[in-house]
């Protein structure tokens, strides 16, 4: 028996003075209200209403039980209110600094349509994983090898000059006689992870570049500033290049990509973020969605 539902019908019929009016207050059909009150009477072992009159008049037993029923209904309503408020509590999500304010705003707006209320914490790849571990955030978009991730962001090289070729070959950046003529590739902190950094360093060595020609900048802003007004190149996504007004090309002979997945302290939070927001997160990251 649904004790709370039965008590709601009991209280509503009492307030209205009739089964029809009480059913309307409780927003249930009148036969349902009658069945619930009959079930409650059977459960309690006594009649709650005097059926000999046209109005729903309480029996002495019903009058004695009414205050308890009212308290139970109020508690149930308070619990429903608290549950609704708890569902709207923000889910703090750690995200990369590569997404624009517009990207994050669109992700948050999409999340609201599925009753997920996000609050963002921008952080680097290592910090995002640590924030989940220490429970400072409920979930994070963590960096993983692209083959293991739910989202993949292809990387290439971008610069101010429009390249002549469809791809950029690292061999074309070999150092000349003058140190001033050496072109550098700048990496941003988001790509200072083994599956990007180590692969880039191996490609650098295979192309015969000097170690100093591939460098990790302290911030994305610093990396971009080093490219603007120079012949240097920025390792970045196509979306980042467009935002910065740079010409982007893939890197020849090596596949470079970021991979992302959701990490959370609770499995339910992983599902709340990953499943309904899969496409929205892809748009936010400028990513393709990995096949299931």
Automatic annotation (TrEMBL):
The lineage of its organism: Bacteria, Bacillati, Actinomycetota, Actinomycetes, Pseudonocardiales. It holds the Pfam family HTH_1. This is DNA-binding transcriptional LysR family regulator. Residues 1-59 form the HTH lysR-type domain. Keywords: DNA-binding, Transcription, Transcription regulation. The keyword Transcription regulation applies. GO terms for molecular function: DNA-binding transcription factor activity; transcription cis-regulatory region binding. Belongs to the LysR transcriptional regulatory family. The keyword Lipid biosynthesis does not apply.
């Amino acid at each position: 028996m649904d004790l709370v539902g039965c008590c709601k019908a009991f209280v509503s019929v009492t307030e209205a003075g009739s089964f029809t009016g009480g059913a309307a207050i409780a927003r249930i059909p009148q036969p349902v209200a009658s069945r619930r009150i009959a079930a409650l009477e059977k459960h309690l072992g006594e009649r709650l209403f005097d059926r000999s009159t046209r109005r729903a008049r309480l029996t002495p037993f019903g009058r004695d039980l009414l205050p308890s029923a009212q308290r139970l209904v109020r508690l149930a309503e308070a619990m429903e209110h608290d549950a609704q408020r708890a569902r709207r509590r923000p889910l703090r999500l750690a995200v990369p600094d590569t997404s624009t304010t517009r990207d994050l705003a669109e992700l948050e707006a999409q999340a609201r349509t599925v009753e997920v209320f996000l609050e963002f914490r921008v952080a680097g790849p290592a910090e995002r994983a640590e924030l989940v571990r220490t429970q400072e955030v409920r979930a994070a978009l963590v960096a993983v090898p692209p083959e293991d991730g739910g989202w993949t962001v292809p990387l290439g090289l971008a610069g101010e000059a429009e390249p002549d070729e469809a791809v950029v070959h690292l061999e074309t950046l070999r150092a000349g006689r003058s140190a001033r003529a050496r072109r550098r590739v700048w990496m941003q902190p988001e790509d200072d992870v083994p599956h990007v950094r180590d692969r880039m360093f191996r490609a650098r060595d295979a192309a015969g570049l000097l170690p100093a020609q591939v460098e990790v900048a302290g911030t994305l802003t610093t990396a971009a500033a080093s490219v603007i007004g120079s012949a240097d190149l920025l390792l970045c996504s196509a979306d980042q290049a467009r935002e910065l007004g740079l010409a982007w090309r893939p890197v020849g002979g090596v596949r470079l990509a970021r991979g992302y997945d959701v990490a959370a302290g609770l499995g339910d939070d992983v599902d709340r973020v990953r499943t309904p927001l899969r496409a929205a997160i892809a748009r936010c990251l400028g990513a393709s969605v990995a096949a299931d």
